[in-house]
Amino acid sequence: MIHPKSNIKGRGAQQNTHNKFFELSHEMREDFLEFCHKEGETVDKNKTQYLNVFPKTIVNKVTSPDVGMAYSMNMYQGCEHGCIYCYARNSHEFWGYSAGLDFERKILVKKAAPKLLETHLKKKSWNAQTIVMSGNTDCYQPAEQQLELTRQCLEVFLKYKHPVGIITKNALILRDIEILKALAKDNLIAVNVSITSLSEDTRRILEPRTATIKKRLRVVKELSDNGIPVNVMLAPLIPSINSHEILPMAKAVSEAGALSIGHTIVRLNGTIGEIFTDWIYKTMPDRAAKVLNQIESCHGGTLNESRYGVRMRGEGKIAQQINDLVQLARLKYFKNKSMPKLNTNLHEVCKDGQMKLF
């Protein structure tokens, strides 16, 4: 049974873990908490901060051989969605913050992203390859509603006829459907929608500030109905939390129009293992030990898994059962369906922002 009882409302992580790059650590002591309680003072205001950063480039080459993309870009670092399992949490430590609550509440914003992208696409040395937005954090997280950096970047991709991929779990993407339709006319867009459960109770505690499952299924349908190809990521699959939903999820997204599904088995690298363990004992105390043991059984007895070729799919009996179920789902619900290969042939003649005559 799920017990959505957390200390900090509307957040995934329930603590700020120590940043491994810092010598000193910050500790919230019980006597301080007791003092605040007696004085009626607020210990934690739980507000999100948007902090501007100024990178020199925005497009990143992806060297990992098993993530399915060659280039990525992120307009935001940190993510207010608060998904407890998110692999990107560890990257927040590089910026001097915690992978826990800081990751969800200190959002780094790259306002120059559209200009940096345009500069990159105009390089004479650049040969078009699909660039995926949200390789690290969701490009349609709540900050996008006001800042519209993702929308501006999509307009740049359209201007230069360049292929782009999107990964998101936010229904805000439908705001930009006209731009997406224009890209789809030239086969320049592929959207990956993340759906981890059909249960709102599960979604609410795993991904506290994401779009509801109903809205995400509507995203899949509306995009598909408008000729925009959609792959659904059933990711991550977590033993004894959502692994039993593989076939129902696959059926639902196929009926909504998805052309394919992808999946990963959860892995809890670095500080994420500590954050997830703290979270699950607070939200699912009756099954916490079982879930953690089953995750470990998928990764050679540890929560941490970094081996290429193994880390995404796991190993052992439980991992094999999950992978077999996903394969069965593909055969049952996605026969004769597939995602199109994006068009890389139009960009070269559009590097100055318009079609060249010769």
Automatic annotation (TrEMBL):
Residues 65-311 form the Radical SAM core domain. Coiled coil: none annotated. Keywords: Iron, Iron-sulfur, Lyase, Metal-binding. InterPro entries: Elp3/MiaA/NifB-like_rSAM (IPR006638), MJ0683-like (IPR040086), rSAM (IPR007197), rSAM_sf (IPR058240). One of its GO terms (molecular function) is lyase activity. Pfam families: Radical_SAM. This is DNA repair photolyase. It comes from Winogradskyella sediminis.
